[in-house]
Amino acid sequence: MPENTKHILQTYLRRLTNLSGNSRSLLLLRLHAEQLMDLHTLSFLAGDRSFEIIRSLMSGRGRKIAQVLDSRMEANNEASKKLKKLQRIDQFLYEERGSNDLHVGWPFVHGKFSDGTSVRCPLLYFPVSIVQQGAHWVLEPRADAGITFNKSFLLAYAYYNKVTLDENLAEAAFDDFDTDSTVFRTQLYQLLRDKIELNFNSDNFRDELIAFQEFKKDEFEATHHNGELKLYPEAVLGIFPQAGSQLVPDYLALLEKDSIADLEDFFAGKSSEAEAPRVREENLYTPFVLDAYQEAAIKAVKHGRSIVVQGPPGTGKSQLICNLLADAMAAGKRALLVCQKRAALDVVYKRMQDAELGDFLGLIHDFRNDRQELYSKIARQIDHIDTYKTLNRGVDVIQQERRFYQASRRIDQITEELDDFKAALFSDTECGLSVKSLYLLSDPHAPSVNLRWEYPNFRFEDLDVFVRKLKLYANYAAWFEGDDYLWRERKSFAGYRPGDERTIEQTVYDVVNYQKQLSQELYRLLGITMNLEDCASLRVREDDIMGMITVLKDDEVYQYFQAMMPESDDETSMLWLSNMERVSMNCYHDEAPETTVPSDQLGIFQEALQQRMDARSNIIRLARWELFSESKFLVKRVLVANGLAYNSTGLNVLEKRIDSRLNLEHHLTSLKAKPWLINLPVGYDRVTLKKWFEKKKLAIRAKLVFNSLRELREVVNVHKYTRAEFVDLMRQLLRAVSDVPGKRAAWLEYLSPYQLRQLILDPSLAAPMTTALRNDFDNLCDYDKLKEELVSHEREVIDKLYEATQEWDAPRLEALFRNSLGLAWIDHIETKYPVLRSVSSLQMYQLETELQALVAEKQKLSEQILVVRARERVYEGIIVNRLNNRVTYRDLHHQVTKKKKIWPMRKVISTFEEELFQLIPCWMASPESVSAIFPMQELFDVVIFDEASQCFAERSIPAMYRGKQVVVAGDDQQLRPNELYQVRWEDDRETPDLEVDSVLELAGRYMRTVHLQGHYRSRSLELIDFSNRHFYGNRLQLLPDRNYINRNEPAISYVKVDGVWENQVNPVEAEAVVEQVMTLLQQQANKEIGVVTFNAPQQTLILDLLEAALQREGRAMPASVFVKNIENVQGDEKDIIIFSVGYAPDKKGKMMMQFGSLTQAGGENRLNVAVTRARERIILVTSIWPEQLKTEEVKNEGPKLLQQYLAFAREVDQRRFVPQNHYPVPEETSPWYLKDQLRRWSAERLGDIAFQTNALPFSDVSIRQQDQYTGIVLTDDVRYQQSLSAKDAHVYTPALLQQKNWSYRTVYSRNFWKDRERVEYELMLLAGSRQPAAQ
User: Residue ranges of the DNA2/NAM7 helicase helicase domain (predicted)?
Assistant: First the structure.
C-alpha cells in the first residue's frame, strides 16, 4: 500500500472518535452539564440508593429514579431538569440518526495504557431510556438492546497496548449472565480475568456507587501510571455514542490486507470503463414518479458508472433512491442504502413499503435494537413462500410481463423517433445552421429565387463572407452597371496598379489622336476619311489585298478585272466559269475538235458525213453513194485535211472530231454571250483557250477580294486606274494602316473592344471617359477584383438575384438571397429527414399522446412486476429433500426464530448470505451498522449514500468497499458533517483527501457528478427563489401551481416584534412564535408546522413555552409539529415553517453582530437548510429590520446572507417579488428563439395580454392578463433543445403542467413558419383573447 494511502486510512481511523483521546468513551474527566450526569446524584431521590439502579438494570427491570417535580426538594427538581434534557437529546438523536445513544456507564476504568495514553471510561454500557410515568422519571432498559462492553475501550486497549484481544470479546452477550448483581459481577470478572489486565478490586463488589470525581488532565495523568488499569464503582447516565467503533475493525482490516492501493483506483474500480449501450426501457424499472434529471442519473448507474448526485432541497433525491433500489431489485441485484439520518431512511422505506416492497427490505437503524424485528421479517418471508408462488401463478402476471415489454419497446421506438426529430431539428451539420433556425429566418410566402443547384455551395457558418461580397457587389454595381456608365463595358481593372490610371488615360487620347492622323492620310489617298475600325479591317485583310495584287499580275488580267467590276459576284461566278472551262476542255479529250471546216459549213458537212456513215449498212446504198453522191468529194477533202484515210476507221475518227467541234462551238457560244468575258480566242487552240480561262479566273479572284473590301469598293473606281496605279494605291493603303494592329493591341491592353469601338465612333467620349476614370479608378479596381474573386456559383446566384429584382438594392438582394437559401436548405433537410414534417400533421400529437400513456402505464406495470420479481426471487432455486421438504432456508429459519442463544446479525448474514439476500435483496442502514452486521467483502452490487454532505468521509469507505458500484447523493450547499457530542481529530499534513470533510466532497473528487434540478417541494417560487439565486446558481426549476400563484398571496410573512436578546434567547419572539403555532393549530389543524430557531437555547425556550401552552389546553405535542434549530432541521419539511430569528438589540438597545454558527465558515449552509423546509408558507418572526444588521465587517457569508434574506422576506411580504425563470441560455440572443417572436407578436396584437418570456420555469412563454396567469406556451427553443430526453420534453413537462393546473400549447417553429396565421389563432384562443383571428 502506498504511503500516502496508508496515511489517509490511518488518519481516517484516528478520526473515528472511539480511538481518539478526545472521546468520552475513552477519557471522561468531567461531566458535560446537558449530556451526562452522575448516577450517584440520584441516590434516595426515589427512596433508594443509587446502586439499586444498577441492580435493576442487571436484572432487566426499570426503576423510578426521581420525581418530575418535588416541591420539597431542590436537588430532585435540578435532577428532573437534567433528566428532561437527556430525554430530549436522546429522542433527538434517535430521530436524527436512528441510534439510541443513552447509556448508563458502569463501572469506570481508571489508568493508562502501556504507551502512556490516559483512560477513564465505562467498562460496560447499559442501554436505557428515560420515561416519564405519571409524576416520576423511570429509567427503563432498552428492549432487545442488551448490555455491551465499551467497545472503544477494548479497541483502544488492543491498539495502545499492542496486543490482540479475543475477537469474540467485543461481541460478548450478557443475556446468559445471572440477574443477581453479585453473581453478575463475578461472571464479569471471570470473563475478563485471562483476557485483560485489569485491577478488579473488591470495591466493585460492594453494593454502592461512589460519586464521579472530576479531574484536570494534568492532575489525572500525575496520579496514574503506565500500564495500570483499575475499576471504580462510578456510574454515569448520558450520551455515549457507540456506533463509530464498529468502523474501526474495517479500517484495521483494510490496513492489514493492503486492500486499497489508492483512492483513485478505489473509486475507478467502482465504475465500468466500457462504453455501455443505450439503456433500453425494458431494462429500466421505475415504479415511482420521476423527472428527466432523476432518470438521467438512473441511466448513468445502469451504464455501470458510479456517480455523485447533487440533490438540492425538494428535487426528488429520495424518489431517485427509491427508483434505484427498485430497479436493482427488479434486476436481481443486491443494493444497500447508507445514511446516518434516520428520517431519510424512513422516508425511503415508507415509499417502498407503500409499493408493497417493504417485506423485501432490511431496515437497520440500530443493529442491536432492530435485530428482533429483522429476524421476524426473515421468518415471515420464509413462511410466505407458498403464498408467493400462488400469487405469481395468476394469468394477470403473465399478461403484465407481456404488456410491460410491449410498452417498453414501443416507448423505445417513439423516443428514438422523437430523438431523431430533435437531432434533425437542431443539427447544423448539413448547412452550418439548424433547420430550426432556418424556419424562423426564412419565409415561404416572401419573394425567393430558385437556388436548387447553387445552395449546396453555401454553408451558413461561411455565409457572411459571401453576403459581404454580395452587398459590396450590389453597391458597386448600382454605381458601375448603369447603361450610361462609360466604363461599364471595360477590361477588368482587377490587376491594375495605381500607375495604370495614367496609362489608361493616355491610351484613350492616343486612340483619338491616332485616328485623326490616320484619317487625314487616307483622305489624301482616297479623298475620303476612314475611322480606325475600317482601317483595322483593311489591315486585317492585308494578305487578301496582297493576294489580289498578285493575281493582277499583268495588264490583261487587270483588263479582265476591270471588265468584270460592273457585274455582280453572282454573275461573275467562279464556279460557273470553272465548269465552263471543264466542259470546254473535255472537248479535247479522246479526239480533238475538227478545225478545217468553216463554222458556217459545219452543219452541211455533218449531214454529208452522216449519209456516208449510214450507207455502210447496205451494199447497194454504199455503191449508190460512191457513184452518185455529190458530197463524196467534200468528205474526202476533209478526211485528207485531217490526215485521215478514207475508210471506216478514218470516218469514225472524223465523226468524233466533228462531235467535239460541235460541242466546243456550243460552249464558246455561251461564253460569248457574257459581255464581261472579253477577248475570247478566235481559233480552237486548246492551249490558248486554257490560258484565257486561267486569266479570267485570276480576274474573278481579284474581283472577289476587292468586293469584300467594303471600305474600298465604293470609293475606288478601278476603271480610273491603270494596273500599276491600282497596285500602287493598294500598297500605299496597306502602308498607311500597317501600324493599326499594333496600336490596337496596345490599346486593348487597357480598353475593351467595345470601348475602343465607341471611342473610334465617337472621339468626343474621351473627355468624359477620362474624367470618370479619374473619379472611379480605385473603386473600379476593387469592383473588378471582387468580380474575379467570385466563383461560378456565386456569380450565378448574383445574376439570379438581379434578374428577380432588376435593381442593385443591397438590403433587398441580401434579404432575397437569405430567404431563398434558407428555403432551399429547408427543402433539402426535410427531404433527408421527413420526420421534421411530423409537427405539421397529427403524427407528432399522436406520438406524444401515445408516449405519455405508455410511460404512465409502464410505471404502474413496473410496480406490479417488481413485487412479482421480488416474490419470485424468494422461491426460485429452492432445494428440497427426498420427502419434498425444503432444505433451503431451513437452518436460517431456525436461527431467526429460536428464543435462546440468538446469533448476532453479522453471524447470520455471514452464514446464510445467499439465502438471506434472496429473501431481502435491499438493505438500509447507517455506516456504523453496515460495518457491524455485514462481512468486510463485496456483498452488494450497488451501495447508495444519502445525505452524504452530513456524513464524514471516514465513515464511508468501509460501506463503499462492500459494493461493486457506488452512488453518493447529497447537497454540498446544506449542512456539513458535524459530530454533535465528540471532538474530531485533525491531521496537520496537507492532503487534499483529508482536507475534505464529507463523503460527498470526497466522492466528488473522483466520480462524475449529476445534478437534480427540478424542485417540487415548494408551492410558490418565493419559497425557493432566495436559495436558488444564492446557493444553486439558479439551476433549480419550480413550476408553481397556477391556482396558487393566481391568488397573489405572499408566501412569506414578515412578523416584526419588539424582542430583546438576552442570555442567548429572545422571550418576546418565543412567545410570538408560540402564539402563531397555537393559532395555526386552531385554524389550520390539517397543516404540518415546523418551528426553526437559529440556536439551541431559543429552541428549548420555545419548546418549553409551547408544551406549557398545550398543557393548559390539555393537549399533547401533536406529531405534526416540531421545534428544531438550524443545526438539526436538514431533511425535514412541513407545510408551514415559522422562523424565530432571535437576534435582537439587548436591553440597552445595542445590537451585537454575533450570530452563532451562522458566523462560522460554511455557516451560510445552515441558513439555506432552514429557508428551504416549507412547502406552502414561511412566517418569519423577528425583532429586527434588515438595515439593523451591519455585516460589512463580517468575514464569512452567513450573516450577510441572513441580512439579504430578511430583506427578501420583507419584499415578498410587501408583494414586491417578481417571478423570474433563470433557465440557462447562451449569452447572446438568437434569432431562432421562437418565444421572442411570439412575445413581439403579442405586444403588437393582443394589447393587455402579456406574453412573458423567462418568467416561469418549465415554460418558454407565460401568458398573463393583468395579475392572472392564463396559460403557458412551450416551444422548440433552447429549453427543448437542452431537454435531457424525449420523455423530458414530451412526457414529464406536459405531465407537470397538467398536475399544476396549467393550460398550455406547444408551438413548433415549423408550424409558425408554414402557417403562422393558424398558430396565432390558436394562441389567441389559449390567451382568451376576443380579438378576431385570421382564418
Answer: 290-354, 932-977
234 and 270 in a single domain? The answer is no
- Contacts within 8 Å (CB) and 24+ apart, 867-872: 867/355, 867/356, 867/357, 868/391, 868/392, 868/397, 868/400, 868/401, 869/329, 869/330, 869/332, 870/329, 870/357, 870/359, 870/360, 870/921, 871/388, 871/389, 871/391, 871/392, 872/388, 872/392
Which run of H or of E encompasses 779? Answer: helix 766-789
Q: Identify the bridge partners of residue 619 per DSSP, sorted by sequence position.
A: none
pLDDT > 90: percent of the chain: 62
CA distance 916 to 911: 9
Q: Are residues 671 and 618 in the same domain?
A: yes
Please check whether residues 212 and 113 belong to one and the same domain: yes
pLDDT higher than 70, residue 1230: no
Q: Is 1251 in contact with 1238 (CB distance < 8 Å)? A: yes
Distance from C-alpha of 616 to C-alpha of 626, rounded to nearest angstrom:
11
Dihedral (CA of 1283, 1288, 1290, 1294) sign:
negative
Cell of 977: 458533517
Residue 1176's domain spans which residues? 1051-1213
Banded pLDDT at 1228 (limits 50, 70, 90): very low
Q: Which three cell numbers stand for residue 36?
A: 451526562
Q: For residue 896, with 0-12 CB atoms within 10 Å meaning exposed, 13-18 middle and 19 or more buried, which class applies?
A: buried
d(CA 268, CA 263): 8
Residue 1125 half-sphere exposure toward CB, CA atoms < 13 A: 20
Q: Looking at the structure, do residues 42 and 153 belong to the same domain, yes or no?
A: yes
Among the residues of 283-394, which ranges form H helices? 292-302, 317-330, 342-354, 371-383, 385-392
What band does 857 get if pLDDT is binned at 50, 70 and 90?
A: very high
Q: Model's pTM, two decimal places?
A: 0.77
Same domain, 1296 and 1180: no
Query: Which position has the higher pLDDT, 604 or 287?
Result: 287
Provide the CATH number for the domain around residue 1073. 3.40.50.300
Does any domain span residue 909? yes
Please tell me the distance from the alpha carbon of residue 683 to that of residue 599, in angstroms, as a whole number. 11
Q: Do residues 57 and 185 share a domain?
A: yes
Look at the chain and report how many structural domains it folds into: 5
Handedness of CA 738, 740, 742, 745 (dihedral sign): negative
Whether 539 maps to a domain, the answer reads no
Q: What's residue 1227's pLDDT?
A: 43
Domain boundary among 1160, 1183, 1213: 1213
Q: What is the mean pLDDT of residues 417-444?
A: 94
- The three cell numbers of residue 1317 are 396565421
In degrees, to the nearest 5, what angle opens at C-alpha 601 toward C-alphas 595 and 606? 80
Residue 370 backbone phi and psi in degrees, to 5 = -95, 5
Same domain, residue pair 1005 and 882: yes
**Pure H helices in 552-647:** 555-564, 574-586, 602-615, 619-628, 632-641
Most confident option among 253-262, 581-590, 807-816? 807-816
DSSP codes joined into one string, 95-141: HHHS---EEEEEEEEEEE-TTS-EEEEEEEEEEEEEEEETTEEEEEE
Tell me the three cell numbers of residue 1204. Answer: 439579504
Judge whether 242 and 151 are in contact, CB under 8 Å: yes
Longest dimension (CA), the chain: 208
Mean pLDDT of the chain: 89
832 part of a folded domain:
no
859 domain-assigned? no
How wide is the angle at C-alpha 1201 spanned by C-alphas 1198 and 1202, nearest 5°?
85
Q: Of the candidates 980, 1011, 1042, which is a domain's last residue?
A: 1011
Angle at 692 between CA 690 and CA 693, to 5 degrees: 65
* Residue of 1076, 1124, 1116, 1117 whose CA lies nearest to 1098: 1124
Mean per-residue pLDDT, 1310-1318: 94
- Same structural domain for residues 1192 and 1238? no
Strands 307-310 and 1008-1011: parallel
